[in-house]
Design brief:
9 helices; 184 residues; Arc Repressor Mutant, subunit A; Tetracycline Repressor, domain 2; mainly alpha; elongated
Length: 184
């Protein structure tokens, strides 16, 4: 059995991530996490006061990872191409990490966005969109872009496209957005 003193927030978070990615949010509970780490559940509460705090840390991890994927995909590209590349990175991330992605958009009460990974992710989206629209604070366009991406992911995840698939709908929608965002 691992001694609780050898536990770290990062070790707990990584094991929680493994549980989440392997079985979804329902597989993530303090008892199974403690069992996987070889400790008593009470040992976890030193580092995370409750499951909600652990899930919040995983949400931050997801936001950081998605932020990194968008930045990497869009790096050194012209604005329209960067926005398209980021959209494909977003879609790729949601497919590769469905449970972690799901935490990012789980229902929660409205709250002001404070500093942190979620706000940083929003700022990346706002910057990418603003580079195309010419308005660095184009919240309306950034919301439209994000809503399109999230909506597409949700439709795909729920099987709504059926056996025939989306038939190029992602590209067509993305093209329409990028063209619509470009100043005339």
């Amino acid at each position: 059995m691992v001694y609780p003193a050898k536990l770290s927030p990062e070790a707990i978070l990584q094991t929680a991530l493994d549980l989440l990615e392997g079985g979804g949010e329902e597989a993530l509970n303090m008892r199974s996490l403690a069992e996987r780490l070889g400790v008593r559940p009470s040992s976890l509460y030193r580092h995370y006061p409750d499951r909600a705090a652990l899930v919040a840390a995983l949400e931050d991890r997801a936001a950081l990872a998605l932020d990194g994927a968008l930045r990497e995909a869009s790096r050194d590209r012209p604005p329209g191409e960067a926005l398209r590349a980021a959209a494909h990175a977003y879609l790729g991330y949601s497919r590769a990490h469905p449970h972690l992605y799901g935490l990012l958009l789980a229902p929660r009460p409205p709250a002001p966005a404070g500093p942190g990974p979620g706000k940083d992710l929003w700022n990346v989206v706002l910057h990418l969109v603003g580079a195309v629209t010419g308005d660095p604070d184009d919240t309306a366009a950034a919301v439209a872009y994000w809503a399109f991406l999230h909506g597409y992911v949700q439709l795909e995840r729920s099987g709504q496209f059926g056996a025939s698939g989306p038939r190029g709908g992602f590209e067509r929608g993305l093209d329409a957005l990028v063209r619509g965002f470009s100043p005339s």
